[in-house]
Each structure stands twice: as structure tokens, then as C-alpha cells.
User: Fold these one by one.
Assistant:
Number 1:
Amino acid sequence: MHSRATATAHESGLHAVLGALEARWPQQVSRTEAARLHHANTLTWYPPQPPEAVFMAASTEEVQAVVKLCAQHRVPIVAFGAGTSLEGQINAPYGGISLDLSRMNAICAVDAEDLTCTVQAGVTRKHLNDYLRDQGLFFPIDPGADASIGGMAATRASGTNAVRYGTMRENVISLTVVMADGRVVRTGGRARKSAAGYDLTRLLVGSEGTLGIITEVTLRLHGIPETTAAAVCPFPTIDDACNAAITAIQSGVPLARVELLDELQIRACNIYSNLTLTETPTLFVEFHGSSAGVDEQVAAFRTIAQEHCSGDFQWSTRPEERSKLWQARHDAAHSCLVLKPGAKVVATDVCVPISRLAECVAETKRDLADAGLFGPILGHVGDGNFHVALLFDADDRDELARMKAFSERLAMRAIAMAGTCTGEHGVGQGKRAYLAAEFGPALDFMRAVKVAFDPYNILNPGKIFPAEPATDGADQITTHA
Ligand SMILES: Cc1cc2nc3c(=O)[nH]c(=O)nc-3n(C[C@H](O)[C@H](O)[C@H](O)COP(=O)(O)OP(=O)(O)OC[C@H]3O[C@@H](n4cnc5c(N)ncnc54)[C@H](O)[C@@H]3O)c2cc1C
């Protein structure tokens, strides 16, 4: 809660910052309600908390100028990429400025021989892949939404391809970052590995805008595979589907994607995407490699799937058929709304060691039924990561309470299985309460890092650690867990 003195200091600081920005870049500052609401979260059960103004940055120098002003006047800054994050990361609970990087969308360099590229933070993954296609290269991280590369780095995003190509953690080589005091740092070069010093790149990847503002990202690229084959593979039970995926991973079959959709999610895809799949737990799989390599992978997977009672496979090597299937998978979050017209949806994710996946999914399905909740399950099961898309009536307070309790049980279940409360969506506001259970005393060291990087707590306050508004110091950062 703001005290009167704090609120007055905040208002005069904000006034000074906006005055300076409007004098220099009048076209790039917006205080309209529409712009502010567009820059607040709408994808969780948290209410939108809009910033007080939006600044559209066009260069690292402009980001630096904004950060210096905000540091001087202790005004909160919430970095904004594409606004697709799912845990309230872009909400501004303490007001301040949304620093929108979407206009920083230049592809600075592609070094095809080294399989690297450097892009500004606002480049989206689809834009990057369209640009790379002619050079036979691609960037594999695919969170479904057309997120910005800066936002994906900031949330340590992953998605359907992570089982083969890793997450943002493995695919970001180095960053250019504006630190909380306005200094611009580069966290490394373009070498594929380095043993020099602390790994600031890995620290900033996943920091959700709380440690610095990323303005450029150097990424690892991959060659477009010679052959791609996709299959849809139904199973009688969710256990069989999970166990087939687990066995394939444990046997070293190099799956490029292996996605679980439960029977509810398949029904939604059938209706929304006009498909005719059998409404039973199903794996969508994809294989990449040479033609002979893909044949081998397909044969190995077929044997494993049959051992787990799979039904008939539907194969496709034709690009348009594959795209239709994967588009249906990517539309899953929207498609599930057809199952409960008028409902809202929030997606929550957890991740467990793959040996515990079947058990965790089965317990979660039982828990959903016992709680009287409705939520299709889908997941990047090759990584042990799955999502529950909870469908609910926003006016039903009792249902909302049951959902929150369910989400807490799900996070704690994953942590108890040596997993994590989030495999890819991040902490934001939604998962803050679980970090103490997941990390114990290690959380104190994370808090110490935050204090060292951002002593006045101006960078995305109230995320990862519950926090008081930026006023005069480090001891304001607290956890309520
Ligand atoms: C339909 C749907 C499906 C999704 N599926 C997946 C999935 O499979 N896997 C997955 O990982 N995610 C998924 N997501 C979540 C989302 O797409 C990711 O979290 C994505 O990485 C967010 O990127 P963004 O550009 O939208 O970031 P934003 O939402 O704009 O910002 C996210 C966070 O990063 C910070 N940030 C943004 N840009 C910067 C920057 N340049 N410097 C510092 N901090 C910054 C923000 O302050 C905020 O804390 C999905 C979302 C939707 C809507």
C-alpha cells in the first residue's frame, strides 16, 4: 500500500520523467487509456494493472535514456515485448512506465557460417524465421504465440521443439542489456561456449525484466532439416500416451516434438480446426533429419508406441498437412473455449522429471475431477512439461476459489516430485508464492542478486518476489510465501 508521502514522491517522479520524455520524444509517449490497457495483462485471473504511461523505444540509446530518468526519479519500468506472457508479468502493480520494445525489430546480423544471428529485442520469432528461411536456417524455440525474442529470453521460454533443440537457456548466446543504473553491458561474444567469469547471460535469461532491459540478443541457429515427418498417434489411456513418450526419450529416439493432447483437447481441436481425430489421449510427434534418419526414427517410435497399445498412426510428410496439424496444436489455447461457450481460460504449467510425468498427469486429472473443474491437459511431454487450460466462469467466485486451490496443489505436486512450479511460463505474479517451497534458502540468494542489480527496485517490481513500490532501497524486497 502506498503511504501518502510515497504516493506524492511517485507522482512528482513520474511527472518529471514524462515531462523529460515528452519534451524529447513527443510521438513516443502515450498516456491514453487504450494504450495503457493494451500494455496490461489480460491472460490470467489477475485483474489488469495498467502502467501510467507507455514509451515506444526505437533504440538501445532511447532505452538507456528512459532507464536513467526512471532510476533518478525511482519510477517503475515494466519492459514489454509482445504481451503474450501468461503469469501477469506485464502488469504494473506499482504504476510507472511500460517500456515497449516492439519497434526495436531489426535483424542486425546473420552469421550463417557460425549458425548465429543478432537481433533487436522486439523481433518476433515468426518474423525471424521468415527472414532466415531462404538461407536454409531456422530458430527453433516456438512458444506458439508470436512472442518477441526479448520477451522469450526474459521468460526463458520454450515450447514444442524444446525436447530436441532446448529452451531459450540453450539458444541465447549473449545479450546487450541496459542495467538498472543505465549502463549498457554486453554479456558475451558469439563463441558457442565460454568459461569466462560468472554467466550473466544465463542469469538474465528468465529474469522477467527484473534485472535489466534486454535490447539485443545473439542467438544460436539451426539448419532446416532435410526431411520432416509428423504423426498423430492415439492411445487408449493418458498413461499409455505418457509412457510411450517417456520410453521413446529414454531409448534415445531424437524426437523433434512430442506433444500430448488429452481427449478433451482433441475434441476441442476437432471442432475448432475442423479435424476428425479419434477423441482419446493422443501424441502429436515430429521427426527431423536425413531421409534415412527419419525413417529409422519413425520405425523406432512406431515399435515403442505399439508396445503402449497405440491405435492407428496418421502420418504426414507433406508440408501443408503438417502445418494444418501443428496449427491445430498451436490453436489449442483458443480452441478449448468451444468446449464451454462463454467461459474464460487461464493456462497453468508445471514440469517434472520425465519418470514422474505419467503419475503427475494422472493425479492432476483426478484432482480436476474431484474439484469439479474443467480443463483440458496438453503438454510438451518430452520435457516432462504439461499445461492445464482451466475453463471458468469469471462471475463464479466459488469456481475461482477452487481453481486457485487446484493450481496451488498442482504446483506443490510438481515440486514434491522434484519438479518445478513452472517449466516455461515463468513466475510473474502467478507463481511467486511457490518459490520458497521450490528453492528454500536458495531464494535468499536470488533476492540478493535482485538487490545487487536493482537496488531501488525499479525494474518490474512485484514480480518473482512480492515487493513494495520503489522508494529508497533494497530492503523493500520481501517474500510473502
Ligand atoms: C496461446 C499462447 C501459448 C503459449 N505457449 C507457450 C509455450 O508453449 N511456451 C512458452 O514458453 N510460453 C508460452 N506462452 C507464453 C508466452 O508466449 C511467453 O512467455 C513469451 O516468451 C512471452 O514473450 P513476449 O514477447 O510476449 O513477452 P511479454 O509478455 O511482453 O513480457 C514477458 C516478460 O518479459 C519481460 N520482458 C519483455 N521484453 C523484455 C526485454 N526486452 N528485456 C527485459 N525484459 C523483457 C516483461 O517485462 C515481462 O516480465 C504462450 C502464450 C500464449 C498466449
Number 2:
Amino acid sequence: MDKKISILGFAGSLRKGSYNKAILRAALELVPKDAQLEIFDLEGIPPFNQDLENDPPERVKEFKKKIRAADAILIASPEANYTIPGVLTNAMNWASRPYGDNAFDGKPVTVMGASVGMLGAARAQYHLRQSFVWLNMYPLGMPEVMVAFAQDKIDAKGRVTDEKTKEKIKELLESLVAWTRKLKG
Ligand SMILES: Cc1cc2nc3c(=O)[nH]c(=O)nc-3n(C[C@H](O)[C@H](O)[C@H](O)COP(=O)(O)O)c2cc1C
């Protein structure tokens, strides 16, 4: 069998009860057999300070190392005021710097999102896709996973209870793995 595809996942929310952390946890159980998923918590990544970009804080170094070691990236993003949450933009800013040392360079990537609203973080997801251009990442086209009204699909213990949502996450992971294998040649 081919070597397993390693996926690094992170959510753009720090809160314990995060719906986006919940869909990432669900992904742990839905990942195809020929792949593995590791989750990185953005907790502990300080606000970006360009004065420190050449020797960033330890947590940032750890984040960049995990990104580099992964074959593919999976982002679970909420939406904040119609765009990417600050905590996620901040972490991605660190990982992309200094100029010439962008940890995301050339990585296959996909994004999913959950929100309590009716669009499932769609706007944040499209804004992320715009950033992938400059980051030189290779975004998967379809499927898109937009978990709208997340409070009805994820229970109080942070478990995804909606079968359709689980199906979509599974499909996303399978497509990401196939996409990554295709790019690896
Ligand atoms: C500052 C702030 C801005 C928000 N803006 C949006 C928004 O633009 N669109 C949306 O669908 N939900 C918005 N929400 C609601 C989020 O969908 C909801 O808080 C969601 O649970 C956040 O994701 P999480 O559960 O992973 O933390 C906002 C919430 C906060 C706190």
C-alpha cells in the first residue's frame, strides 16, 4: 500500500465548545484508511509581531513544523463579521512569514466551516480561498462543506449528530486525499 497521506487540521476558533473544533474531531473518525489526521490547536499563538518573525515564539515554530511535515492541510473555519476570524488570520500570518519561509508553500488544502447562521461560514471560506493564491497552496475544488445552523447538528458534548454533515465531511476527506495523491504524482 502507498504511504499514508498525513493531514494537519486546525480550527479558527479557540473556544472549548467550538462547532468548528467539533467538525474537525468528527473528521478524525471519518478519515480514509490510507490517511491520518492530526489536529493542531491554535491556542497559545500570540498576536503577530513582525519584529519577531525571524525567530518566532515556540508555539509558532511548532505550528510551522507540523505544517511542513504534513502532506495536506484541512482548515475548519468559523466566520467573523463576514470574513476569516482573527485568530485564524493571525496564525496563518505567522506561518507564512518571514518572506521566503512560507510553511504553506505548495501544500494541498481544503476548508470546511460551521456557523450558527444560514451560510455555514461560506464567506470566510471564500476569503480563505483568496489567501491560498498568495500562499501558493493548492485548494481542492469540490466538495464544499458549509455546516449551517450548527447548533442543530452538533450536540452539547460537541459530537456531530447530523448524518448528512458526517457524510459531507467524509466525502471532503476522501477528495482531499485523492487530490493530494494526484499532486504528488
Ligand atoms: C465576533 C463574532 C462575529 C460573528 N460573525 C458571524 C458572521 O459573520 N457570520 C456567521 O455566520 N456567524 C457569525 N458569528 C456567529 C458564529 O457563527 C458562531 O459564534 C460560531 O459558533 C463560531 O464558531 P465556533 O463555534 O467554532 O466558535 C459571529 C460570532 C462572533 C463572536
